[in-house]
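[SOLVED] Need 3D model of a two-part complex

Original post:
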Amino acid sequence: MFSLFLEQLLNGLQSGVMLFLMASGLTLVFGVMGLINLAHGSLYMVGAFACAAVAAWTGSFWLGLVASLMAAAIAGALVEMLIIRRLYNRDHLDQVLATFALILIFSEGTRWIFGSFPLFLSVPDFLTGTVVLGGSFEYPLFRLAIIIAGLAVAVGLFLLIGKTRLGIRIRAGEADRGMIAALGVDIDRLYTVVFALGAALAGLAGAFVGTTQSVQVGMGEPVLILAFVVIVIGGIGSIKGALVGSLLVGFTDTMGRFLLPHLFATFLDPSSATAIGSALASMLIYIVMALVLFLRPSGLFGTAA
Amino acid sequence: MTMNRETLINSILAIALVAVPLIALGMDEPFIITLATKVAIFAMAGVGLNLVLGYGGLVSFGHAAFFGIGGYAAGILASHALNYEPIMESPFLIEGTTQMIIIWIVALIVSALVALVIGAITLRTSGVYFIMITLAFAQMIYYFAISWPAYGGEDGLSIYVRNGFPGLNTLDPISFFALCAVMLAIAMAFSAVLIRSRFGLALQGARQNPQRMTAVGIAPFRIRLVAFVVSAMITALAGALYADLNRFVSPTMLSWHMSGEIMVFVILGGVGRLFGPLAGAALYIILEHLLGGVWEFWQLPLGVLLLLVVLFARGGLVGVLAGERKHV
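Solution:
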């Protein structure tokens, strides 16, 4: 029971870290450009498909990973330059609708190219199997690798935003876009770069998650909605909020699904305990979100809307 | 002049909605009658959403929740009645029903209560937060429907015999169409009266300038909450009809694709226009039927079209035809 608990805790961490890769791009794009992008989940899907296709073609998972980054970043940059750019000065309704249209295009396009059957990504050989983490507790090595890789990317992102020249420009763009344009920063290119960066992170998350689940059309949508919950909890536009929100949602979701049926089993018969427990667990993160919003309408780290 | 043109377009739309199924009846094409029924139902769902989206300026991305609640009201009540299992035995007996009128009343009450809770929380926020939170609440109900096994869970729930309406054979396609068309007409007339009333003016005022509304002594929050609840009730009624049309209800009705589609009907037709949802739903169903017959991946051209409408034709179909730019 205890090792099961630990395993679920690590699974929660893994889902939190993956959510952060999604949510950070989403919140960055909103913070800098003021754009709500529903098609972010499609870029996640593009990353997963690129990784699966290239890995199947070349036999190398690593090339697949590079492909996922490249494909998502290129798709993101193209979409930004062709379509998204026209939406910055539009209201949110137009943004929602245009990016909803992009989802239709991406999903049907992918189904057209790859068919409706899910693809599978296999883990590189040396990352298969389990690793012993103290005593008799074993955990799949690859999942551990994903957690570490995800955390490394998160640290990298914080350094990029906090320490580099590009990061300074991104933060300045959030604060006052007119001013940095006046100071000679090419704002159009900055926007394309930010969008492509967010897309690359989403694509990477897609490739990682694609190895633990199947790669299929529509895979980005549940994650997208979770990422929305994350950034709403964390405060839209805040990277720190995205991190805290991701971990909160990852742990709440995983532990809720694991613990609630057990909790209800203490005073209900097993079958209804499972039914009620899992039904409630599936709603838990939304309840957490409602609570956070009730107490802080602009999220944990958000500035007043 | 432009007003006349919009009135003309509206009349053509209304006449077409009635004429097409009648012609189909004469040509013995029941499938076309079913398509027209679908148009009427989707348009009604859109009329509900248009109230908050178009007139209130509140981008609800979770109206599938109410559409699905209406659908499940029909499915659950009918399944209890058809299986002769009471819904509740103590403290008092509640039995299922196959009477549409009772189902509609239940759908209206349940959706109003849910909308009251969701609205009270979501309307505290605005802008992107509102969009995402309405979406998240709809997802919450969607996942609940999937993981709750009593009413079919992911597989959905069949309604073996279409529910009944006094004096009408609802299994007859044209009769059911007539019922749906009348319901749509009532919803549109109600919506037209509502937006011209003091309440409707206040709702539009709250969209245009909430500070000024507050200054004249009208609290935007309460106006918006009432509009949100009424909007949800209209959409739920459409959902109950949709479940009866398909004789099937599943979590798909609650999914966020459904929310997106209802929104598409409104935008494609023209936001904040009385006949916008009808024009949008009709165009959507026609496109689905025509493109879907030719190409399996018909949603690809649909997405492109939608993108073009958003980028270049901002008044929607009615707006483009009527040649008049409106707000939003």
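Edit: The first strand of chain A starts at residue 130 and ends at 132.
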